[in-house]
Amino acid sequence: QVQLQQWGAGQLKPSETLSLTCGVSGGSFSGYYWSWIRQPPGKGLEWIGEMHHSGSTNYNPSLKSRATISIDTSKNKFSLKLKSVSAADTAVYFCARGKVMGNWFDPWGQGTLVTVSS
Amino acid sequence: QSGLTQPPSASGTPGQRVTISCSGNSSNIGRNFVYWYQHLPGTAPKLLIYKNNQRPSGVPDRFFGSKSGTSASLAISGLRSEDEADYHCAAWDDTLGGRGLFGGGTKLTVL
After folding, report:
1. How many angstroms away from the CA of A112 is the closest CA of chain B?
2. CA-to-CA dists, residue A55 to A22, A29, A71, A116, B94, angstroms
3. For residue B88, which of B26, B57, B44 has the smallest C-alpha distance?
4. I need a labelling partner for A71 at 20 to 30 A (CA). Which of A25, A77, B65, B104 fits?
């Protein structure tokens, strides 16, 4: 059974780069979309983007210029970098395995609260 | 950014049937599959329904997904206290080059 365990810095200052990593255990990277999703306080979920195991990527147009998703299959992990963060990027960030482009997320990571504050 | 539209809240008593709606347009729900996720705050969201009306293994048949045109619904029958959670619908949206799109979430309270 695939499990995702995520980690990364939870406190950032404006203009810094958010960096989160998601470790994958119990399954292969092949055939899936490795995704990041976030939930700002009091708001709904927002899809950030994904990388297919083949290397292709898709990003939310609203975040495309700042987000980078990468996969390291040798270390069974994938990562998110979001540059030039602001308070609007404060959210719980989730990693997830997607079975189709932009959806069918199962399983999810446990979530990481990232707070951007000066 | 605009997303799919869900009511912010819903409620019911144990044993009742509750329905949560999810409204979109021809660029998302109208042409793509709908997915539903159950989320208890502080935990990882869980896939509840995939491809409009399919239940993953382990999801009780009390949960029923449907789609018609540009709208979708999640029905929960025989409501139980452990069903109290946030429910999110999702679909791929073909605008702006394509993107994953979620609803704002519906908080279900079991009275």
Report:
1. 10
2. 17, 11, 8, 30, 21
3. B44
4. B104
> Do A44 and B101 lie within an 8 Å CB cutoff?
no
Question: Encoding tokens for residue A19?
Answer: 């960096």
Q: Given CB atoms, is A107 within the 8 Å cutoff of chain B?
A: yes
Pairing, β B9-12 against β A11-12:
unpaired
CB A117 within 8 A of CB A10: no
What tokens appear for B13 in the block? 């008593």
Kindly list the averaged pLDDT for each block of 10 residues, start to end, along chain A of length 118: 94 97 93 96 95 93 94 93 97 95 93 97
> A75 burial class (0-12, 13-18, 19+ CB within 10 angstroms)?
exposed
- Residue A96: CB atoms within 10 Å: 26
Beta strand pairing status for B18-23 and A33-39? unpaired
Mutate to test the interface with A, among B22, B36, B102 (most CBs of A within 10 A): B102
Angle, alpha carbons A41-A25-A48 (nearest 5°): 35
Q: Encode pLDDT of B40-67 as tens digits.
A: 988 999 999 999 999 999 999 999 999 9
Cα A101 from Cα B89, distance rounded (Å) = 15
Tell me whether residues A105 and B47 touch, CB distance under 8 A.
Answer: yes
With CA atoms as reference, the chain B residue closest to A62 would be: B1
Q: Quote the tokens at residue B103.
A: 């609803």
